[in-house]
């Protein structure tokens, strides 16, 4: 009798979940050969080579009044653990996302928890998906959206409860540092769409905990404001994208920021069903201040910087903060080789926005090639990049031309499998 009772109950549960539950994953191993990735490599230094894997398990649940999502993630470098070791050496397992979105009615909702913040072309807020760990935020969002207008108000307040006694004695000081980790964040994002045109406005404030020079927690918070706009226009085979952002206020430890700016303009044209062309430029202001207490350098904060100034990550990927800025001109072409394959060719020429110590600005040229091939249920991506450095790049990166390797390159291959284990929302 118990079995007879359990079977209908289980069947009813499956039917109930049929419109509400999804379960999927991601398996993404990648191998990289690094011989000048991120910075110039010296001729006396051996190239780096390693393999890593990103593993995710994602579950989503949707009811009439709310939705819930959780993503578990681990990033594994092959060989990082010795044989039979009971724990993970790099402690990389994490809850990548965990949020609830509550429907408030009349196009309003609120989203709270650990989540990705991705807007527009990801110049200021992006998922940074190229990195195996990617980027997330612990935040609360109040959202409004209809067919043509979107408004998001985001709030965050970060703390560390690892040492409750220290937390109580230090009030609300925030000890986490690096990569523009913020103590507080408030932003307003507005977006309007028309036929073929969209425009957005971002108003962002980040509060950073101040520190003394010896690493001791300092007093107060430095607040940095970033505001600007993104526009996107498409008509037939032609497209234009514009970015314009300003920064002011203070960086961490009361470093004054003034006249910092980013301007970007890109044109795209679909020549045929198999060829897409693009050309563009971006100007990011650099520091020309004579003192450490002031800067005019713009930093794109939480954007997917790998997408913009060259795939070899020489600029604004954990580097180049408060430096000479950047001016790049880039051209690209995307060739569709078949129904499921393509190759991207991207050429970028780099110059400093401010003069280097020797009066020069030219940094060099980068060539990026990316081949993509989709299969039945998975995809393969292969990339190769070559940097042709000028004297300015040697000076900027602190590796003389005589000491630098004659070839600066990077190669990688990545397999992407995203299995769909369960999707009961489709009847």
| Strand runs, count | 20
Number of separate helices: 3
Shape: globular
Task: State the end-to-end distance.
Answer: 30 Å
Q: What string, H for helix and E for strand, traces the elements in order?
A: HEEEEEEEHEEEEEEEEEEEHEE
Low-confidence stretches: none
| Biggest sheet architecture | 18 strands, antiparallel, barrel
Fraction of residues in H or I helices = under 10%
From the 3D structure, determine the CATH topology: Porin
Query: What is the typical, i.e. mean, pLDDT?
Result: 91
Number of domains: 1
- Under the CATH scheme, the architecture is Beta Barrel
Strand proportion, as a percent range, falls in over 45%
Radius of gyration: 24 Å
Indicate the CATH class.
Answer: Mainly Beta
Class from helix and strand fractions: mainly beta
What would your notes on this structure say?
With 427 residues, the protein is mainly beta. It has a single domain (31-47, 95-423), classed as Beta Barrel (Porin), CATH 2.40.160.100. It is 7% helix and 53% strand. The chain is built from 3 helices and 20 strands. It has helices spanning 2-17, 164-169, 391-397; strands at residues 21-35, 48-62, 66-77, 94-105, 108-115, 137-145, 149-157, 184-194, 197-211, 217-235, 238-251, 255-270, 275-284, 294-295, 326-336, 341-351, 362-374, 378-389, 408-417, 420-423. The chain has an 18-stranded antiparallel barrel. A hairpin with a 2-residue loop joins β8 and β9.
């Amino acid at each position: 009798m118990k079995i007879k009772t359990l079977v209908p109950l289980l069947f009813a549960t499956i039917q109930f979940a049929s419109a509400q539950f999804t379960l999927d994953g991601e398996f993404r191993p990648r191998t990289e050969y690094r011989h000048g990735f991120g910075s110039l490599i010296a001729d006396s230094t051996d190239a780096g080579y390693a393999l890593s894997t990103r593993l995710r398990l994602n579950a989503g649940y949707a009811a009439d009044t709310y939705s819930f999502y959780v993503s578990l993630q681990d990033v594994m470098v092959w060989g990082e653990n010795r044989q039979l070791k009971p724990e993970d050496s790099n402690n990389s397992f994490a809850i990548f996302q965990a949020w609830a979105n509550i429907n408030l009615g009349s196009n309003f909702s609120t989203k709270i928890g650990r989540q990705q913040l991705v807007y527009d072309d990801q110049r200021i807020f992006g998922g940074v998906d190229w990195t195996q760990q990617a980027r997330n935020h612990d935040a609360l969002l109040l959202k409004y959206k209809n067919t043509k207008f979107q408004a998001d108000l985001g709030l965050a307040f970060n703390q560390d409860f690892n040492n409750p006694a220290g937390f109580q004695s230090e009030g609300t000081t925030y000890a986490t540092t690096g990569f523009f980790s913020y103590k507080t964040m408030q932003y307003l994002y507005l977006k309007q769409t028309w036929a073929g045109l969209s425009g957005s406005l971002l108003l962002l404030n980040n509060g950073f905990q101040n520190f003394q020079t010896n690493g001791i927690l300092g007093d107060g918070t430095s607040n940095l404001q970033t505001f600007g706009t993104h526009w996107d226009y498409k008509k037939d085979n032609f497209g234009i994208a514009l970015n314009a952002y300003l920064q002011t206020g203070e960086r961490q430890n009361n470093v004054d920021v003034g006249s910092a700016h980013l301007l970007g303009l890109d044109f795209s044209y679909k020549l045929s069903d198999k060829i897409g062309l693009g050309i563009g430029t971006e100007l990011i202001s650099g520091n020309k201040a004579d003192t450490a207490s002031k800067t005019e350098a713009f930093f794109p904060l939480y954007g997917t910087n790998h997408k913009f100034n060259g795939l070899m990550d020489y600029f604004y990927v954990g580097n180049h903060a408060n430096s000479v800025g950047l001016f790049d001109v880039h051209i690209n072409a995307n060739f569709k080789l078949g129904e499921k394959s393509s190759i991207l060719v991207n050429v970028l020429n780099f110059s400093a926005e401010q003069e280097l110590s020797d009066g020069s600005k030219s940094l060099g040229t980068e060539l990026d090639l990316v081949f993509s091939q989709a299969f039945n249920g998975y995809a393969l991506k292969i990339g190769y990049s070559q940097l042709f450095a000028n004297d300015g790049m040697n000076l900027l990166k602190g590796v003389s031309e005589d000491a630098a390797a004659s070839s600066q390159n990077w190669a990688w291959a990545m397999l992407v499998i995203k299995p769909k284990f369960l999707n009961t929302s489709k009847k």
